[in-house]
Amino acid sequence: MIDKKIGFLPFHEMPWDDFERLVWELVQASESLSPCHRYGTPGQAQGGVDIVGRAVDGNWHAFQVKQVTRFTEADARKALDTFVHGPHPQGAVRLVIVTSCRGTRTQVRDLAHDYQDRHPSLTLGEIWDAEHLGLLLRSRPFIVARYFGDEVARRFCDHEALGVLSPTESVDGLDRPGILLAAADPFGLEVHEAITLEHVTDDGPLPAYFRRPFDDELDTAVDQARTGLSTMKVLLGDSFTGKTRAAWEAIQRLPGEWRLWHPAGPDELLATIDLVAPRTVLWLNEINRYLLSGDTNRDEQVAARLTRLLRSARSAPVLVLGTAWHEHWSTMTTAPRDERAQTKALLVRCWIRVPETLSEDELALLTAGTEVTDERMLQAARLAESGHVIQYLAGGPAQLERYETGSPTARAVLHAAMDARRLGHCLDLPHAFLKNAAAAYLTSLQRDLTRPDWFPRVVEYLSAPCRGVRGPLTPAPGSSMPESPEPSHYRLSDFVELHARRHRQLDCPGEGFWSAATRHAASAKDKVALSRAALARGRTMEAEALAMAAAEDGEGAALFMFARSLEGHGKGDDALSYFELAAELGDAEAQVVLAWRYERAQRLDEAEHWYRKATESSGRFDATAGLASVLSERGDDTAAERLYGAVLDRGFFGARAVEYQARWLADRDQHERALHLATRSFEAGNGEAFTGLAWTYMYTDTSRAIDVFLHAMEAGDTNAPRELAWVYENEGDTARAEHFCEIAISMGETNALRGLGMIRRSKGDYRSAAGLLWRAYNLGVRHALPELARLREEEGELKRAERLYWRMLQEGDTSAEANLVHLLETTGRARQAENLAARSVPLLEVLARARAARGESEAAEHLLVPAIRQGHPQLLLPLAALRMQRGDTTGAELALRQAQDAGVRFAAERLAKLELEAEAARSEAVRDARG
């Protein structure tokens, strides 16, 4: 029988997070999914999925939650497209759209069924609206009561279900307080939510529990209760040391018929405690609420009634679990002799101390991964300060909450700190920098309305402790000076910094940030790092200003990078002055580059000067080799040979520097000198010296390359027969190719077979190539297998190719994943391709390109965009390429600008190229218009 007084629950009036959590609890209760958890975090791109869970058949189901008053056909299409074309969390095969609307339009349901027909491998036709949610909730009063209150639950839920409604249950004519233990919610019992990691989606709402020695004592109390003995324990520790979580884990060992009662306060406890049934956990988190309520007489009554409950045979067994801070415990147990006698008697010998930190042994065990594999616990163990792992887990969300709810000025200071740290500034952020940089994150009106003392007020707000950990921004150690009322430097919390590195990747600070950094960054090295970051984001003027500021502090590295950037953009003449200034400041790289440029311009005096400077200041191999080259050009061969010998005596990298010198001489037609240096490099341990020299000639003078390899064979180079086999095969001399291939094999160079097979495959001789590749594989060349697989693909033998790729994976060669993703996608097995591509970002890019090649450009974009929002800005480059392929130049430019702002490598170059092409196209259009 239904109480008609309430027909619908007011879902639309709930806070959004409560509505999503209600749906999550309802899904767990009605769908038998385990595990089942909320997917992602607020503001994070989640591919249109809010809840995921695994069914008993092993398949994952996804739920999208929409708290809206209208849900249109367009909304449904967008939701379904996002799921169908995007990566499916955990490979989910079912999508349920949950809305708070009173009903669902016929057009929406028809659209969902249409999608179901078009995608038979998925389950897409379900829309849960407020009416459907109500039907499910009528038999679940616990959930209704938790979100709407007991009175609403009594008036809404089925009469048959109300018998188990919290907080009391009718048994033998008496109302027994509490709920079944299985229905308890850890968060409702004040277990704190932990940090979340955006890249991890399969962890539950609570981190895996890490047992500590005190858990054994707690387990003993639980075991006593299970055997029929009433007992009480209070977990004693400071704020956020894991007390409540430990108690929650302990009661999970109790049988299913046990109940749990969490009285709201001392008044409810006194009114109901006599009705406590056997096998009940009395949950007294923060026991000071009941025994230090401000009314000593009432506190003593509570203590007396708890003592009587523990002694009562009629109620046994009961387990009373409490938690307390040290300061509250001291007040309760050290009162004068004639005060709080009942409380002191109750609490004697019932405490269990919870350490504030993990010991070194516990940290080692945790990070070894033998006990816990939860990524959140491992991150906390790595980053928590002085073993404060539990505080880190609980404090992270509080730090973020303070950031998210802060004033505009507080958020501005944090944004400046976040951006400084993620762009390369050291840990300690100067007071002056933060104060000046923060202005760049405020509107002109906000700046005008700030109070004169706004900065110290913000710092006071941000540095206040959060759940037992430091605030999001706190004074750096040792930064407080007696002569100054304010610390000179501040530090950003690790957790907030990690959050910023994930969520602010696509943000490039404004001009005010860079200006503040130029004037106030902590050191020259910080200015170098920030100049590099500005350069990567196309902020050329800001990069130059920071580089010049670093130069004023005596550091030339940023000027060198700036000069390299100019050179890379075809502005070599402009770069020269920056190279010179960096070299004058003692930057060894700049000195070598400057010397190299002078040497090639035959300005030998200047080349010698800078090579000597670099050799004296850094001892670089390339500087000494360059100096030897200059002396050789001047005819001082004795001095040159001595310097080459000094370089070669310094090991492999010195030998490589001499090899590079040999290549340069070869380009200048100094062949004998080049061969002499290559020989010396080889004799010094560089096995690639002759190969490097020979390939310098390969495309201009093949006969000379062959001569080099023949000389190398005489010198004992085991690489030479292999290289000769490949050269002769490319030249069409199969007999000599096979001759030298066999020599190479006899010398242990079995990779010669693989290379020969690849060349024949490129010529279309698949049969011979396959034989060579199989022989190489059987001789232990494992990377011959991917070449075989690609050969089968080229032949059109896709099934054989696929078998080979799977074989590679079985042998541990993960490079096959990309080939498999492409093959699965192009053969119409999109679901398998998506599941495999979900393993990594590069695979997602492969899938997107393959999908675009099949003509599904928009679907390919649907794959990339969520991953970009989840912290993978490098995917903006393939996104721009896809947009260009379909003629969306504006969209491509937008993606490249975002990539440049995120500092993605090559983004600035590609953007510049696109802009040049666009300008050329506009000019051509103008010329055509003029006729």
Main sheet summary: 6 strands, mixed
Structural class comes to: alpha/beta
Query: For the CA atoms, what is the radius of gyration?
Result: 36 Å
Determine the N-to-C terminus distance: 84 Å
Q: State the share of residues found in helices, binned by percent.
A: 55-70%
Q: What does the overall shape look like? A: globular
In the sheet with the most strands, the strands line up as 8-10-11-12-9-13
- Total helical elements: 47
- Provide mean pLDDT, rounded: 86
Task: Report the count of strand segments.
Answer: 16
Low-pLDDT windows of residues: 164-174
How much of the sequence lies in strands comes to 5-15%
How would you portray this structure in words?
The strands form four sheets. Strands 8-10-11-12-9-13 form a six-stranded mixed β-sheet. A five-stranded mixed β-sheet has the order 1-2-3-4-5, sandwiched between helices. It is globular, with a radius of gyration of 36 Å. The protein has 47 helices and 16 strands. The longest helix has 24 residues, at 907-930. The chain starts with 15 loop residues before the first helix and ends with a helix. Helix 3 (106-118) links the parallel strand 4 (94-99) and strand 5 (123-128). Helix 23 runs parallel beside helix 25 (557-568). Helices cover 58% and strands 7% of the residues. The protein is α/β, with parallel strands linked by helices and 931 residues long.
